[in-house]
Amino acid sequence: MQQNLSLEVLRSARRKAEEAEVFSASARATTVQFEANELKQVQSRESSSIALRIFREGKIGSAIASGGGGWEALVDMAVETSQFGGPANFQFPSFHDHSKVRIFDPKVEKIAMERIVEIGKELIAKVKGHTGDILCDVQITKGTSSVSLINSQGGEGGYDKSFFSLGLEGILVRDTDILWVEDSESSCRSDLIGIDELADRVIWQLEMARKKATVPTKLLPIIFTPHGVASALLSPLVLAFNGKAVVEGASPLKDKLREQVFDKKLSLWDDATVAYGVGSYPFDDEGVPSQRLPLVVNGVVTSFLYDLQTAALAGTKSTGNGRRAGGGFPSPAISSLVLEKGEMSFQVMVKDMKEGLIVEEVMGAEQGNILGGDFGGNVLLGYKVENGEIVGRVKDTMIAGNVYQVLKELPGIGQEARWVGGTLRTPPLYCSGVSVTTKGN
Amino acid sequence: MRDLIGEALKGHDADYVEIHFEESQATSFVYRGQRLEEISRARSIGGNVRALVKGSWGFVSFNQLDGLKEKVAVAVKEAKLASREPFKLFRTEPVADTVESQLKKDATTIPLATKKELLDSYNDIMLSSPKIQSTRINYRDMKRRTTFANSEGSYIEQIKTDLTARLTAIAREDNEIQQAGLSLGSNGEFSVVEGLDEKARGIARRAAALLSAPQVKAGEYTVILDPVLAGVFAHEAFGHLSESDHVYQNENLRQIMVLGKRFGGKHLNIVDDPTMPSLRGSYKYDDEGTPARKAYLIREGVLEGRLHSRETAAKMGETATGNARAINYHFPPIVRMSNTLIEPGSISFEQMLGDIEEGVYVKDWYGGTTSLEMFTFSAGEAYMIRRGKLAELLRPVVLTGNVFTTLENIDAIGDDLEMNQGGGCGKAGQYPLPVSDGSPHIRIRHCVVGGR
Hints:
- The complex is a heterodimer of chains A (441) and B (452).
- Chain A contains 10 helices and 22 strands.
- Chain A has 441 residues and is of the alpha+beta class.
- Chain A has 2 domains: 2-205, PmbA/TldD fold (2-Layer Sandwich), CATH 3.30.2290.10; 212-441, no CATH class.
- In chain A, the strands form 4 sheets. Chain A has a 6-stranded antiparallel sheet with strand order 3-2-1-4-5-6. In chain A, strands 11-10-9-14-21-20 form a 6-stranded mixed sheet, covered by helices on one side.
- In chain A, a hairpin with a 2-residue loop joins strand 5 (156-174) and strand 6 (177-187).
- The termini of chain A are far apart.
- With 452 residues, chain B is of the alpha+beta class.
- In chain B, helix 1 packs parallel to helix 2 (68-81) and helix 3 (112-127) packs parallel to helix 4.
- The longest helix of chain B is centred in the first third of the chain and has 16 residues, at 112-127.
- Chain B is globular and about 70 Å long.
């Protein structure tokens, strides 16, 4: 039905515009939600949307409709916006065949709700087995989505995707001290998610946070765990590699293509072809085939992320990173980021530090001048290292730094990488000279 | 519609069922530098059903409005999968009402051309300023028509409008990049985005000035927060802690947040009030149909109340405050703030400055978040204070601290209340919810200010 509707919208748009593109998406998901260790709510969501983009008198117009019936107004709304739209500086791709990226597992849909409830109970039981008075919120989601895209250049394609995610957030309150622990995983395949591994990581956090420690206000070495990398360092980089920031000259990397900006040990990929990765797709939301794109190779900046329109402005080709948040207007965005692992084990990093911090989670890391590369915030979960030993959790502590300074020379990159939240695979990063501020010093 | 809903609400074996319908339309503009990068219109239709059976919830959201009775059945079936302790919702009287929006100049009816002309002019002002490399303008207005009905006989139709805008100027010199911005919002009243020429000029000037501004030396300072930032502090630091869904099942947190406990000086009053007229967080009924009311969170320094849904009120033996809100029909209502503010005191800004030897004056909102105990937020603008006088402009600073000690450390509350309507609140994946917050200037001793 959706397919016919897309065709109908395309036909009616073409009567008023030179070119048109219709993107339709639908999703069904069920979430089982535990609150304070108990099953509180089961929730199912169904959504569908159709987005229309047109070139009319050489200008771009766009509109989106979600839900029953709204699509009749699509063409009129797109025509209305096209009067004020930017110039149509690119062409829709006439795509057909794409490499098969594995993103659908028919088994996900068939997992019984009873089994999902059991998974949640198992996970909570395991964490409670370590710390009896912890209160856990657990969310488990299974779902499928489908995408179809057609355009007036004869381009046409569609795919189905499955997803399964598991997340736990634990809170432990003692007097007025509040400890949060957290971990999550997602994949297109449910059997790629390790319930025990997730529980073990949360238990490790609880174990490390058992004692309290204090740090002085000064420059210190910091190990960012995979979680910490995602929480503190990622946002400035994602912003800087966005082709839009590069084109307008706001990215610190704009003139740095083929230059050594980061440590030689550092290589970073945007990989939309990872098997069963939740960020993977056969073609992007504009019909451009997906790829494994090197962003940084041995510290040298090698490419930026582009969609069709931004690529045209930059005089280059789309990298297959045109994504539509909420089904709307395409914009360059990451698929999955993969930071290549290095050669130092986590234990060796810890042993190497005379005095330093391990950072798992930073609160408010996105509040500073992230466009300029700044990161920082309150260490929500982090541990102090003294003479090569983890001695306890730190509180009332802020870190601040700049990714271009910190990642320029790294004492070490971890040899074990893992997925964080489904769209970043990273090892721990061992950094030096990060500003640490603490209360009472 | 009303008959359809009435029919669907019959013949189930749940303890409680509610249905939401929603029709919305939105217009958005995105500028990046000289380019109007996106101009888009959106329409959305959908709804949801929520059912309570023996203490657990089932929830179904959908785009297709047919088969409502089956959707009720699915929600009931889902609720039966869970097995919590049964409870009764806090009792509220069924309401039948229709709420229209009353705007002088409804943004959603202003022609696209008018909006574009206005935004173009601000963009031009910023772009033509010295050292400005690029700009960002985000503008969005939306109108929602919502219908709420429940199995107790309530039937409420409401029209809600909302407007948000943010102007940002990005300055660059060599490899140095700095930005300054302004966030605005209203209940759909268009006038809030009119007449901003001078402000646009100011943003551009500030971004350029930041290029040569020093970074604050990290450490503990006496800080003065302007009304915007103090409002964000009230929201982040205490508002979230007052949301009962964090507290109601956590015995230890309940002890921390026991009513009657002292949190600050006698001068400290914090309220959440959805009944204030014409603000972004204003409404007549929440998304469970409970009438809105003003709630004192802290009165004269002592914890007096908290924000409730019908569930949390019932479970804590307190009164539902009308704070159950959902961002749209894809989500169930959860406990949220509305208009949150620190009530004004009697001290002037000059008096506050007067006895500070060295401190930091922080202004304007950039972001903020909380882990309940710890909060952090960043100022869009900051100045050193030396010997009771405002001194040099600083790079943006981040403030952090423990909620409980920081509330105690507020030693002066100003006489100049202002409400801030920029931004939006995020919780449990529901972002951005229209809220507002406000405060007079406040002074905090021993506040950790981050920098390098």
